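In these records, each integer encodes one residue's backbone shape. Here is one protein:

___
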Amino acid sequence: MAKTALYNMSGSQVGEIELADEIFGVEPNEHLVKMAVTLQLANRRQGTQSAKTRGEVRGGGKKPWRQKGTGHARQGSLRAPQFTGGGMVFAVKPRDYSFKLNRKEKRAALKSVLADKLANGKLVVVDELKFDAIKTKDFVKVMDALKFDNALVVLAEQDANVILSARNIPTVETIQTGSLNVYDMLCYDKLVLTQDAVKAIEEVYA
């Protein structure tokens, strides 16, 4: 099994933690990672944009000039696409951009990112993250101790003190293991997991 250092909130190494090879030791699949990111971004799109075709634009019933003898090209309507105020040729219409990946593909993509973060030294495991009160200053001290300034912090369960302490830091985001996803992991340079979060991930994806 793969091993990585285990730190405390002071930044000191307190031991090592074994990581499941079937999650953190897989060969990254870049294609599935790309598909997972595309899926998340596509599913966020509202798809409510709409424009009018020449058949939907008001007016233009009368032929602008006679067919022959004017020196102009023949025209049938001032609402044709080439005229100002005319309709669009291929007008966009409301549509659903979402699509689906099967469960195995989603899991493989997430494992790929976890394995890549570990292989590139961008995964940090801390024994616990606990605060007695909501203080951004205390969270910043932990950031300095663990030497990260841009990270996704993964918690096993909701902890209001940790979440609210990190909320005002623009380069840090907290997330629970149940909401862990490929896009958010790729948006941040480092991935910080608590020891309990590692166990929760291994229980679900191993």
User: Anything to note?
Assistant: The chain is about 35% helix and 15% strand. Residues 81 and 89 are 6 Å apart (CA to CA).
